Amino acid sequence: MNGPLKRAAVACLVMFGLLMLNVNYVQALKAESLSSDARNKRNFFDRYEVQRGRITAGGTILAQSVEQKKGDFRFIREYPDGKVFAHVTGYFSPESTSAIERSENGYLDSSHPDLLLRRSIDLFTGEPTRGANVEVTINPKAQKAAHEALSASGKRGAVVALNPKTGAILTMVSLPTYDPNVLSGTDPGKVFSAYNKLDKDKANGPLVNRAINRTYPPGSTYKVVTAAAFLEDDSSRDGQTIVPAPQVLDLPNTTADLPNSGGAACGGGQVPLVYALERSCNTPFGKIGMDLGYDRMAEQAKKFGVGEPLSIPMGVSDSNIGPKEDDAALAQASIGQRSNQMTPLEMAMIAAGIANDGKVMKPYLVQKITDAKNDTVDEAEPEELTEAVSADTAAKLRQMMVSVVNNGTANLAQIPGVEVGGKTGTAQTVQGKAPHAWFISFAPATDPQVAVAVIVESGSAGTEASGGHTAAPIAKAVMEAVLAK
């Protein structure tokens, strides 16, 4: 009798042991794969059980979760002015997220370790779980002004505005845009169909944030960096320093010499640096680049933050002036062409650094995170990224950029009663295609509150687009919105 009982007991122990092993295998080793399995509908419904926190800017709600009175989903994500803020907020879809919805997901859905105490209190008191709220640095009025000005006549491109003193991102517009409400629905079939349609449009790329994830040749806006390197090389130089300005600059080892725009002359062949910047002459800046050499030009670019890894908190594509080649290539890179590629954010940082006495502040998009009880969980602290130039050099550059707006190619950026500094750019793309139109600026020049970079993409504003006529008025609208009381 004892024998059969022992064998039954052993069998039970073995089966119990196997059961425990299987439970641990499923809960530990297989947990992640089971959770991510497309057939697992539980996660799909769970995403809509949590009241995600709000995304706000200046008291304006950009994204919120609204409770449903009936249906299978408790909370639905809504974006009141979705298209205007799409590349800031991103979307919350049945299976993925983007932009702030992705980068701050742990706070928004309350799963972040910083919210552990809050979750524990809610569990003890029986209150439903609510995510933290994310306040971004965007100025809603300026964002809408940028969107409206850039979208006129179906333009493609981007606008970025920064607070030069802190690095806070005041506007971040990318066109074409999309409606995050469409991608945040609860019907996977409709959402995936809408997403695939947007994703397939590679030419226009509505899902691409052109402000931070696409690079362009900066054209003549980059001449302020070349001017900065020239002034830093000798502290006795200023805007009145005479520089060579031939009608055509002879480039070594090539028959493709460097002319000024349209083959025009630049003064009498010898001009003050400020005049060359006002008229956006190519030859003086091409020669300055060759005279200083690649290493010096690359060093100056790096001091403005070019090539520095950035997270705002979304990742930012790298800007760069291109590889070290010959002097002919360097001359072209020094006027913002050849392999020189910049994001609109980087060009805004360059303008902001000049405005802020030579100090480039680290750009950031999240101002504050507060829990469901409105207690602060985290708050941004402005941080200096680099010192691009000395305060003396920055003052000289500011004075020259003000002269560009008052006396040069950027008169359409003038604001009555406000001193504006700026630089236009018309960047050549591939042969036969219209150029990109650029403008970078800051205002007021004596106490800068805003720095802006605008790019209008090739062909989207007509074949004769230029930085002064196409991009400068957009920057003006943004600056006016920021400065408005």
Automatic annotation (TrEMBL):
Residues 52-134 form the Penicillin binding protein A dimerisation domain. It comes from the Bacteria. Residues 157-480 form the Penicillin-binding protein transpeptidase domain. This is Peptidoglycan D,D-transpeptidase FtsI family protein. It comes from Nonomuraea mangrovi.
